[in-house]
Amino acid sequence: MELHESSFASLLSNLRSSTLYNELFVAAQEEAQKSNVRLSDLKKCVQSGLISAGWDKKLRNAVYHIIQSQYKLFKSSPLASPESEKEPIAYILKAQFVWEKKILKSLNSMCTELTVPLARSRSEKDKKDLAARWSELGVDGPDLSQIRPVYAPKDFLEVLVGLQNPNSANTGNMGTYDLPWGLIQVSLKVKTLNELRVQYSEMAITHCQTGTDDLPDIPPELFENERSKLGKKAIAANHAPTAREYSKRGCPVSMRADLWCQILGVDLQNVDYLYYEQLKSYVLQHDLLVDSLLYKDVKLTATNDDQYFVFEDFLYQVLLPFSRDNVVLKHFAYNSATPPKSYIRGKLGIEEFAVTYPPNGVIPFHGFAMYVAPLCYLYNDVVRLYYVFRHMYVNYFFRLHSVSSHPQGIVALSLLFEKLLQAEEPELFYHLIQVGCQPLKIAFKWLMRAFSGFLASDQVLLLWDRILAFDSMEILSVLAVAIFSFRKTNLLKVQCMSTAEAVLADLFTLQIVPLLQLSLFSK
Questions:
Q1: Where is the chain membrane-spanning (predicted)?
Q2: Angle at CA of residue 254, ends 249 and 255, nearest 5°
């Protein structure tokens, strides 16, 4: 990754605006005021003192995370427009715009039907009541009988299926054999199996992996003991790239929470706890229609799941403040989506009275709560849970429900799934097409929810280990192909869509690491 002069300026600007900068400045002043510091050796003594106190590691981690998150913002060309920075392909950007209008129309229709506003102030009584039961929000929640999800994965898939390059569509030169077998008609460059093998070489069958080689029936001295020692060293190093490299073979259960925090750059200070309390106060002050959507989603998904129903209250304590968090808006700088706007009553169409709604710019879909649910197994501190989820969302999950040509976006992941399945299992793919079953129609919900709610929770966490470690979501497509390959024998017998769905309905017994290894390295 090359950084231009403007990139360094942006990096410095981000550092100066961070809390770390102020903390480092104060620490440097304290070092300079020590009695054993001579004026002639001031610089050397201050640097030495800061390094001894571990500030060099904190600074390195901060620089690493800023570069990781901010390189998406750096212009590839001085002439590039803001729109092309978000999405360089015009017809895809237009499709995202049309999709956003459809979502907003659905949301506004719900407001009209239910005669409820998008937002309203809570009464003092309601504020006190909500504050009193903050840790038990699942009890006595709002009336959700008429609330429906704004959209579901199948609705979003229809949008992606409709994507087509107008240039190729207008030529009229495409023959029958040139048309893609799959649903995704967009021509994007996706990786081949060989390229994925190189990328995920640390997962090779010859390498021991957490999740397979540390099971109870395997003597710990063969792998687990040494892996644990190495993990403790990685955590003690407090260096994000080290934690990321270590996690490529999976994170031990007892260390996963700390390793993920290091990879994501979650290092909570008092100000972070205060900020969460501020978000909580915003929830207490105003009741948003989005709150009901989130309540409904949790009730429809996590509450009905044997693995996650116990975390219902935790989910509300994360999702409700998240909807008020305008820090999340920063990710729209590199997201093809645009935060939705609403207008103060009576000021419709007047831009100066426009406000982002919801404040974080994210309208939840059916299944959104499942991005949070697996994380509840890692963190019993709701504030830490909140920040880990926020980092996961703005770095990864937002791409799973935006129309984009980004290689990590849902369009590319869907195309990668179809191309890999065609290449590795052509007989199976052709058979499913012949019986009217497009594989992506089954796999899409897996991809869009990063398999949360479809796999056992421990397997979801093992999968997300690899997303964080390799900084890539392409592993989702690889796993989807692996599952189809694993159930190939039964799938070749199906004669309709419903039977194929039944064959792939229960994934809870699957072990994802062996499946991924077989899919990537067995042929």
A1: none
A2: 55
Using alpha carbons, select from 160, 154, 156 the residue that is nearest to residue 184.
160
Q: Are 74 and 2 in contact (CB under 8 A)?
A: no
Residue 286 bridge partners (DSSP): 121
How is residue 517 written in tokens?
Answer: 């290894």
Q: What is the CA radius of gyration of the chain?
A: 25
The per-residue b/e assignment along 352-368, b for 16 or more CB within 10 angstroms, e otherwise, is eeeeebbbbbbbbbbbb
Per-residue pLDDT of 326-376, as tens digits, reads 999 999 988 889 998 876 665 565 666 678 889 999 999 999 999 999 999
- Confidence class for position 29, pLDDT limits 50, 70, 90: confident
| Amino acid at position 469, single letter | A
| Token duo for residue 233 | 């060293």
**DSSP state letters, 94-113:** HHHHHHHHHHHHHHHHHHHH
Type and span of the H or E element at 354: strand 354-356
> 421-432 in b/e burial notation, b at 16+ Cβ within 10 A?
bbebbeebbebb
- Using alpha carbons, select from 503, 516, 420, 499 the residue that is nearest to residue 459: 516
Q: At what angle do helices 426-434 and 410-424 cross, to 10 degrees?
A: 110
Which amino acid is it at 54?
G
Element (H, E) at 356: strand 354-356
Measured CA to CA, the distance from residue 299 to residue 152 in angstroms comes to 15
- Tens-place pLDDT, residues 31-80: 777 767 677 777 777 777 777 777 777 777 777 777 776 555 434 444 45
**What does the block give as tokens for 306?**
């044997």
Q: Do residues 460 and 395 touch, judged by C-beta distance below 8 A? A: no
Per-residue burial over 127-144, b if 16 or more Cβ lie within 10 Å, else e, is beebeeeeeebbeebeee
Query: pTM score, two decimals?
Result: 0.89
Contact 490, 430 (CB under 8 A): no
- Total H helices, total E strands in the chain: 25, 4
